[in-house]
Fold:
Amino acid sequence: MIVVGLSLSKPLITLGEIGLGAAWLLQGNIKNQILSFFKNRIALILSSIYLLTIIGLFYTTNFEFAIGDVRRKIPLFLLPFLLSGLNPLTQQEIKFIFNVYVIGVVASSFWSVFVLLGGLNEVIIDTRQLSRFTSHIRFGLEICLAIFGSIYYALNEIDTKNKIKWFIAGIWLLIFMVIINLFTGILVFSITTSVLLLFYGVQHKNKIVKITFLCVFITLIASVSFYINNSISSYKAAQQIESLPMGEYSE
Structure:
């Protein structure tokens, strides 16, 4: 439920968390489950992010917003805590869960395109409005995760049909992210891709492959720089237009 709810429905996330909590309790060995959390470094690191929100309470003046923020981010602590106490997932289970996650993200993207094409008779002024089930920032990050995961499974998939499906999902989500101009998602995707290209390019022994990777890396960096500069310029231009008196439009 949680993996589907991330991109399609907040209530599903809540139901999934409740189900996860119930599974944690029903497992029965609560003492060992708590100890396993403190022995799991990844779970501790992920949960510690929530502490930053708690610490922020000492420096805020808007306690109403801060308390709401603390409440919203409770899953940052609960999910690692609960998952660390459950039986580890197998590779097949992880793949199945990620498959469901990608289906949810793709379905959400189709709905956004439906809205963009006028399916709900809405006038879309800001493409960020096309992120219907979550914030545009989170949606962009979810798409990035789906893209990289799809590429990973496509490269490691044995069955040709499944390999093609993974590639199609990844390519579509990348195109979709550009279509609706998810700035954060595009930026994160570009930076991550650049780092991976540089890392594997430097490590590769074949000089031709190494040079190719480095050329693609440089091209990508240049493209991202151009995109960021263009986006900032467009934003500033839009802000200037909004700040003009209404009378100037009628002249």
User: Anything to note?
Assistant: The chain has two domains: 2-84, 91-243. Residues 166 and 173 are 11 Å apart (CA to CA). The mean pLDDT is 79.
